[in-house]
Amino acid sequence: MQFKTFGKTICISIILFFAAPLIQLYGEPLSEQTSQYHFPPLIQSIRFDNNIEYCNIKIPLDRQEIKERLEKEMLLALWSRPQVILWIKRAAKFFPHVEKILKEHGLPLDLRYVPLIESALRPHATSSKNAVGYWQFIKSTGKHYGLRIDSKVDERRNIFKSTHAACKYLKDLEKQFGSYLLALSAYNMGEYGLKGEIKAQNTDDFFSLYLPLQTQRYIFKMVSAKLILENQQLYGFSLNKSDLYPLFAFDKVSVESDFPIPIALIAQSADTPFKAIKDYNPELRGYSLGKGGNTILIPKGKAKGFKKSFAVRYKNWEKTVKTRFHVVKTGESLIRIAKKHQISLSSLLKLNNLSVKGVIHPGDRLVIE
Length: 369
Hints:
The chain is mainly α and 369 residues long. 49% of the residues lie in helices and 8% in strands.
């Protein structure tokens, strides 16, 4: 059907867009152009096999209430097909690394779906409670499990270090509660909160506990993600290998300096854009690396010639910046130093990756230009 007016064409497009999920409900193609793609009926998608397991624990779908909870999460996930496609594409990029670390810690591979649900595998994901990164650690828990979180680095955004930390945390929770389902519940709502609910309700059976609504949904979201990603074509997702994001591949380089090093210097030495260094190392905050030793990821293949290029560039850079540093003396404050060198306090803070509450000590070197 064709219309002469532009407005009517838009209306028909909108109608077809919102009608698509309803047509999908009955499993019928939208047109000749879309008939090559198979979208299974939504009702078929929630006719589950009774042998579904998560972390080697059988989901008791013979209990109506449990079945309803899983049906809800499956339907909501399948309704958001763009999000599922991004799950699949990002999983190809990061899951092999996550799985390797899970194996090192002797943990079930089903736990790989935790960062998928927590952050959709996005390093900069931040919750309303200031949980950050792939595994959504709050600051105190992240630091407790060895993650560096300060004005220069936030390792919650590092896929490798945050996964190791999450494994340690989940192992402790499983040891404490005796079940991965309870461990994940504690991961979501807090261990003290879960302890209180177990005591108040006099049961440690996950499927019988009445928990906060977010936590009640948490496990079933991961079960749904597992079902969809492990049976993609069954649920109407037919991605080619070329559709997937490539495996996150990189080279590692190490640099050392008595001064904070501009990240731009690393990028130039690796013959790659500044943005690439930030993307490969999302844990880095600001525009420079702290003094001392640093290990940085750079695009695969860029390590060749890096050491020689960096040595030359660093030597030239060092000559130009030695006079641009201020050595902190006893009794000096950031405000006083900024005034002395006639720069704004905000510029001084930015140049040194400091906050207003940043602490300086006698002997520290501060960049002033």
